[in-house]
Design brief:
It is built from three helices and six strands, in the order H-H-E-E-H-E-E-E-E. By secondary structure, the protein is an alpha+beta fold. The chain has a single domain, classed as Nuclear Transport Factor 2, Chain: A (Roll), CATH 3.10.450. The protein has a six-stranded mixed sheet. A hairpin with a 7-residue loop joins strand 4 and strand 5. Helix 1 runs antiparallel to helix 2 and helix 2 crosses helix 3. It comes from Paraburkholderia madseniana. This is Nuclear transport factor 2 family protein.
Length: 121
């Protein structure tokens, strides 16, 4: 389970939230997430593939040149995993950082909790 959870964490970061192409993003969502998935982010809760795709696409459109970079190694515990990450323009200090926590069911992401960190000003 831990290898699959690590894979899900990394692929979600790059293929869902880091993906600018809507067709590839939608295919990744279908492959990586359960049909009844839930996304918990500061703006609210988004349920299902359509809502996740809309949120990820709109977020990506606000900063299409940003890259997501894992910080450290993912950790797993039973059916959950977490991965710290940073996001910003390539080669520059990150604009923001956070931690993704996922709940895995049947080899797919059933829930994603995104915790954003406050960056020093």
């Amino acid at each position: 389970m831990s290898d699959r959870t690590h894979e899900l964490l990394h692929r979600n970061l790059q293929e869902v939230f880091g993906e600018g192409d809507p067709i590839r993003r939608r295919a990744a969502i279908k492959e990586l997430y359960t049909d009844d998935c839930a996304l918990y982010v500061p703006p609210g809760i988004f349920l299902g593939h359509d809502a996740l795709d809309k949120f990820a696409g709109e977020l990506r459109a606000t900063h299409p040149h940003f890259v997501y970079t894992p910080v450290g190694e993912p950790q797993t515990l039973h059916n959950a995993g977490r991965l710290a990450w940073s996001s910003g323009a390539p080669g520059e200090a990150p604009d923001y950082t956070g931690i993704d926590v996922i709940i895995v069911r049947d080899g797919k992401i059933a829930a994603l909790y995104v915790f954003l960190d406050a960056l020093p000003t």
